[in-house]
Amino acid sequence: MRAVVQRVDGARVEVAGETVGEIVGEGLCVLVGVTHEDTPEKAAQLARKLWSVRILQGEKSCSDTAAPLLVISQFTLYGDARKGRRPTWNAAAPGPVAEPLVDEVVAQLRELGAQVETGRFGADMKVSLTNDGPFTVLVEV
Asked: Which of these is catalytic: 39, 76, 88, 130?
């Protein structure tokens, strides 16, 4: 699994003009990509990492400050644009494989005590955020 993690001061995701997930104030906006070899164990490992990674102000984590997370599925994180002009998506897991694993990341975060908002899997989403720093890291498990 791969996640692009951004420290934000507010973020929201809209589908067809409707806000489906929103966090206010300091937190993390997390774009999650799934590949073919990923498992529920990797989803749990990613959730633990997201909950404890110290990238908030003062080198704190969401677990330290109860900061919320906005988790959004994004298959394009496994796009490959090394050849030609059009990326390939061969490394991205298909929806029936990816959706339950993204849901597992969210469920594991909530089990850890996190406040989690989400996008809508497979939808055309509009994501708005204020990147704080800017601060963006790539997390892979």
From this structure: 76
Q: Give 47-112 as a DSSP string.
A: HHHHHH---BGGGB-HHHHT--EEEEE-GGGG-B-SSSSS-B-TTBPPHHHHHHHHHHHHHHHHHH
What tens digit of pLDDT does each residue of 26-82 get?
999 999 999 999 999 999 999 999 999 999 999 999 999 999 999 999 999 999 999
b/e 42-60 (16+ beta carbons within 10 angstroms → b):
bbbebbebbbebebbeeee
Farthest CA pair distance, the chain? 45
Picking from 123, 141, 125, the residue whose alpha carbon sits closest to that of residue 52 is 141
- Please indicate whether residue 76 is annotated as part of the active site: yes
Q: Is 75 a catalytic residue?
A: yes
Q: Give me 63's structure tokens.
A: 């677990």
User: 3-state class of 9 per DSSP?
Assistant: strand
